[in-house]
Amino acid sequence: MIFAAVSTALVALRRRRRRRRRPAHAVIVSPRKSTSTHSDGAVRSVQSAKLTLAATDLERIWTPANLENLARTYWRFLSRVTLNLIRVTYTADSRSVVLLGRPLTLLRFDAPEYTTEADHGAVRWRIRDGLLVARAGRGSGFLSLDVRREPPRGGPAGGRGADSREDLLIEVEVANFYPSIAVGFSMPVYEMTQSAVHVLVMHAFLRSLSKLDLARSRIGVLAEASALLAGSLDQDQILAVAGRVAVPRLAAWCAVLLAGPGGDLRLTVARHADESLAGALTWLLNLGCDRAPPSITPGAVPGSAPGPRAGAPRSWPLAAVVPADAPAGVADLAARGAWCFPLTTQEGPLGLLILGGPHGGRPSREVQGLAEDLAGRIALALENSRLAAQHRQDSEALRATLVPHELPRVPGAELAFAHDLPGAGLSGADAGGDFCDVFPVAGGRWRFAIGEVCGTGPATLAVTSLARNALRILGAAGLSIPAALDRLNQLILDEHAPGTFLTLVHGEIRPGEIRPGEIEPGSPLQVLLACAGQPLPLVLRGEGRPGTAAAPQPVLGVIEGQGFTAQQVTLGPGDLLLCVTDGVTRRRDGDRLLDDDDGLARLLAACTGLTAEVVADKVHEEVRTFGGHPAVDGMAVLAIRAVP
Fold first, then answer.
1. Residue among 383, 372, 316 at smallest CA distance from 347
2. Distance between CA 201 and CA 236 in Å, rounded?
């Protein structure tokens, strides 16, 4: 019955074969005796064809991805020629040829093995088992497709020009195959039935390749989509991938509709294989969104998890909304309708991927599966883009609590800072970071602070905000540097947050001789500062080696009643004071830290004569590039230079 169905289908296909010119010409070149039998019963069959096509077409399809497409075309042809009585099922490690369905597995193969060379490609499936394989021969044979690019016509001198035609030799081989029919009946029965049908089917397959209609590779299409989407957080780039991947392989046109704040769908991108119809397509889709928008909510499948497969694709009948005076081309586009594939994530629906309706009305199962997977990848990329945008917004909001929008102008001084949030990103209330601040106090003086709160949980962010605001309030109240640190130490202890403490450099800038409205050029700056747990500030003078500018003192928020002192540093014209958090000094490259062997001092020594802004930028860049990988810890850098 199976063989009769195959033969009938082949005759029908031959009668219905289109007479139009095909892009290639196929000629069967199988050897006269293409099937041979070994004495032990093993069968070898080789069917070959020469495919002649334009050099430009060959260059277009001669890619490693199309070798997999050719293999998929073979299995697709087998299903089509048997009117889907025989189907091929795919798993990660096998290909099964089944009659109607399992358990009627005629042949089961291992996963394909590929060989690719400059002018040659091959794919081989090792025969595992199946009803058509004798028990003694299981695991012995193989099926292979071999494609070889023939030398240019006219020899090497002929070359491969754009207008030339080239030949491909395509060979289908079954080797070391032990047919169960031969064992159960006889070899002549096998030769008159299964073997004869195999030759007939293989010749029909080889001739069909003249259409150059290769099956779409699920792996190839989705691999390209994944490659294009990888690392992209830009929504416009993500949406452009839909058109680039889907058109024309899945449909003549595609579009993406995204839900707005109110849930209304809006057209965000549309692409047609024929660019002359792009305007008509956009006009049609905008009209459809206004008059008959498709439902964004997928029809749920009982027991299914949220995602792109949670609902089957739905048709979008566009013809009903087209008025009589529509622009040229709109009616033809609308007549075929469209199909909607939901873009959904665990958080809910985002929109729809729209594919233009095919000639047959409903997309094939193959196209449907590819479109569903593509929609899932696009939805995931869009969700990542949204989360990244939210992350950036949260980062800016956090940064506003950690650093000033801009530094004030301090008479007689250059000020510059650099700042990075922790590389691990934000985690809600656990977010914190290094902070920096500069603010005026009474008497024409300026206070600065650079520090970091160490700890976990909501207390980290609370203490960070407390420290920055408290220092401003205490400075405005006229408290000295030591007194302000004493009070801040107690405030942190009163928060009752075990394991949370503050490391800080806090100082005050006192400009030199003041004339009405300006500082005398070349006047020194007097700086009072205290360093509580942070890397010691460095001062760079003239051509000398940088030296420490303060003595180390305990961190804040650990010992009650801890006293603090302030040291005075004079910055002569051109001298520079550098304050950093330990995100700078503890930047790691394997087992080595940036500040090992006085690394920060050596870096600063190379900055003699540079402005405060340049020094801050150089330190910042050195931290970012040190180690060759993104920094995990945050950092803050503050440079203060006396105007020369």
1. 383
2. 47
Taken in order of first residue, the domains within the chain and their CATH numbers are 2-214 (3.30.530), 219-297+306-392 (3.30.450.40), 403-642 (3.60.40.10)
DSSP for 426-484, please give it. Answer: --GGG---EEEEEEEEGGGEEEEEEEEEE--SHHHHHHHHHHHHHHHHHHHTT--HHHH
Distances in whole angstroms, Cα of residue 474 to Cα of each of 376, 530, 560: 55, 15, 19
Distance CA 480, CA 526 (A): 15
* Residue range 366-380, pLDDT digits in tens: 778 888 888 888 888
Amino acid at 198: H
Tell me if 502 sits within 8 A of 534, measured CB to CB. no
pTM of the model: 0.50
If one counts every other C-beta atom within 10 angstroms of the C-beta of residue 53, the result is 21
Distance between CA 492 and CA 504 in Å, rounded? 13
pLDDT digits (tens, 9 = 90+) for 195-237: 888 888 888 888 888 887 777 665 556 666 666 676 677 888 8
DSSP 42: -
- Structural contact between residues 641 and 443, judged by C-beta atoms closer than 8 angstroms: no
Distance of alpha carbon 315 from its chain centroid, rounded?
30
Q: Among residues 200, 194, 204, 179, which one has the least CA distance to residue 73?
A: 204
Side by side, the strands of the sheet bearing 576-580 are 413-420, 635-642, 576-580, 538-540, 547-548
- What is the distance between the alpha carbons of residues 90 and 102, in angstroms, rounded to a whole number? 13
Contacts of 63 (CB under 8 A, 6+ apart): none
Query: What 8-state DSSP symbol labels residue 535?
Result: P
Report angle CA 587, 591, 597 to the nearest 5 degrees: 70
Q: Print burial letters for 317-334: b (CB count within 10 Å at least 16), e (below 16).
A: ebeebbeeebeebbbebb
Report pLDDT digits (tens) over 343-402: 988 888 889 999 987 655 677 777 788 888 888 888 888 888 888 777 777 666 666 667
Largest CA-CA distance found in the chain, in angstroms, rounded: 117
**Cα angle value 226/228/234 (rounded, 5°):** 110
Per the CB < 8 A criterion, the answer to whether 254 and 353 are in contact is yes
- Phi, psi of 134, deg, nearest 5: -60, 145
**Positive/negative CA dihedral, 614, 620, 626, 629:** negative
C-alpha distances (whole Å) from 585 to each of 59, 421, 591, 595, 601 are 56, 16, 13, 5, 10
